[in-house]
Write a structure and sequence with these properties.
- This protein is mainly alpha-helical.
- It has a domain of 231 residues.
- 78% of the residues lie in helices and 1% in strands.
- It contains 20 helices and two strands.
- It has a two-stranded antiparallel ribbon with strand order 1-2.
- Helix 14 runs antiparallel to helix 19.
- The chain is globular.
- The two termini are 38 Å apart.
């Protein structure tokens, strides 16, 4: 019977989709298991972070072995090479953060179930952000990533700054989500669909029939307001320094790396899919130019504000704002080579930023302070910790041959080529604009030396206030040396990663 055949087809499709969705289902299993563990008093004495770490690594292996490219669950998600890049990236980040928490003692066994639930839940939402193929799924994924992040920001119980950080994060995040949801409702009402490929066709037809209406323009603007909040770009960056200062350094690492990467992935997908049927000049003269201007202002604000910071977490918060500006410079190009450059940048951004936050977490555990003064004489008190810190900071600055230099080289090259492309294509003002963006990126890199070298001076040249060796332990040293090695490898061995990021960028859209 036709009905039986249709049911069999749907059953086979669902089985295939669930298999592809296996890594996310494993995270769901970890979340549900952690919640059930809270029901048993004996479970509160068991540290669940190692189990979550094992589950994350298994999910990572499943994603790494997935080479298919298809939409799943009726087109709600697109699991392509682009999505798989971010699934691997986010799972690897979660695994490294979980490992870091075991080394620094956050959380203890009593709170481990709550922490695991929140971290795995946030990671799941971020993975869905990178693969969302439907505007409703875009909103749901962002909320799934945001809500656990709000609680994680205030996870340090009994600390006023931590509670304040969580409250600010919730208030600003709720406002951004409301604006974004209103934008999505406007887009769906005007385009008649929330499915991204169909919305792109309707958007192209609307443009050809006389340009975007006020409602369409407002919908797109409000949609990207929500993304701007997640990326922490100007003028939506004001929440980030306070949240990072109040949150634990381990949580700050997750927010700085994973949350930023998920927002970058979603922004790239929306730009490449929604505007694929709109003439290129119309996109570059409006969206691209606006993003380029925001990128320059964001990088400048982040670097200038970081110059006067004395708290290491607050300094790194402004550093992440500046790096969001660098990445947005390439995103503004809206070209596949530039998208590949952003992915390469993220690959180097992971170990150097996570490493910097890990150093802060270790210093907090050993000295009780997160100020720059706590790092004075670090090279004398712990040579391994001091050398690793220097490598992370030099990489964040962009000194060759480290990952930060390789990433900035890729991004700046993409910006330069985009400017040359527009100049040769009859749009000299766009060529000039991207040349200005390139110059601003170089100048900002020079400015950033002011605060990175300030910390390096304290680490390597200043006398310690306490001559006692830190005694961070072998496991901590191995962890930091692993991240340091990754920073060097990404900075020296470009070709495999360049090929990987290019394949991911080609699969976009």
């Amino acid at each position: 019977m036709p009905l039986d055949a249709e049911l069999a087809r749907l059953d086979a499709t669902l089985a295939h989709d669930l298999l592809r969705f296996g890594p996310e289902l494993l995270l769901c299993l970890g979340i549900v298991g952690s919640l059930f563990a809270k029901l048993f008093r004996a479970a509160t004495r068991v540290q669940l972070v190692p189990f979550a770490l094992l589950l994350t690594l298994v999910a990572l292996g499943l994603v790494a072995s997935d080479a298919q490219d298809s939409a799943v669950f009726g087109g709600l998600l697109r699991l392509d090479s682009f999505a798989n890049f971010f699934r691997v990236f986010l799972l690897l980040t979660a695994a490294l953060v979980l490992a870091l928490t075991r080394l620094t003692g956050l959380p203890d066994a009593t709170d481990s179930a709550d922490f695991v639930t929140l971290l795995l839940g946030g990671t799941l939402g971020m993975m869905l952000m990178a693969s969302a193929n439907h505007l409703i799924m875009v909103f749901l994924a962002i909320e799934m990533a945001s809500l656990p992040s709000y609680v994680l920001a205030g996870f340090l119980k009994g600390k006023g700054r931590s509670s304040e950080a969580a409250l600010k994060y919730v208030v600003y995040g709720a406002a951004a989500s409301g604006v974004m949801l209103y934008g999505i409702s406007l887009l769906v009402g005007q385009l008649g669909t929330a499915y991204l490929p169909s919305a792109a066709e309707s958007l192209g037809a609307a443009f050809r029939s006389g340009g975007f209406s006020l409602s369409l323009t407002a919908g797109l603007l409000f949609l990207f307001v929500g993304l701007g909040f997640k990326l922490a770009v100007l003028p939506f960056q004001f929440w980030l320094p306070d949240v990072f200062e109040g949150a634990a350094a381990e949580v700050g690492a997750m927010l700085a790396v994973a949350s930023k990467a998920a927002a970058v992935g979603l922004t790239l997908r929306l730009l490449f899919v929604l505007f694929q049927h709109v003439p290129i000049p119309a996109v570059t003269e409006t969206v691209s130019a606006a993003l380029a201007g925001v990128a320059v202002l964001t990088a400048t604000l982040g670097n200038v504000a970081a110059l006067v910071q004395t708290n290491l977490k607050r300094l790194l918060a402004y550093s992440t704002i500046a790096h969001a500006g660098y990445m947005l410079m390439a995103i503004a190009c809206i070209q596949r080579p530039a998208a590949a450059a952003v992915l390469f940048y993220l690959a180097g951004y992971l170990p150097m930023t996570l490493g910097a936050f890990a150093v802060v977490a270790v210093l907090r555990s050993l000295t009780g302070s997160e100020e720059i003064d706590a790092a004075r004489g670090l090279l004398k008190r712990s040579p391994v910790l001091g050398v690793c810190t220097a490598v992370f900071l030099f990489s964040l600055l962009g000194v060759p041959p480290l990952a930060g230099f390789a990433g900035k080289f890729q991004v700046f090259t993409a910006v330069y080529r985009t400017g040359a492309f527009h100049a040769a294509g009859g749009h000299p003002w766009l060529g000039t604009l991207f040349n200005v963006v390139l110059a601003a990126g170089v100048v900002n890199t020079v400015v950033s030396a002011g605060y990175y070298l300030k910390v390096l001076k304290a680490v390597a040249l200043d006398d310690p206030t306490d001559e006692t060796p830190l005694g961070e332990g072998v496991a901590v040293r191995l962890y930091l040396l692993l991240l340091t090695a990754a920073v060097v490898v990404v900075g020296v061995w470009w070709d495999p990663l360049t090929d990987l990021t290019w394949r991911a960028a080609v699969g976009l859209g």
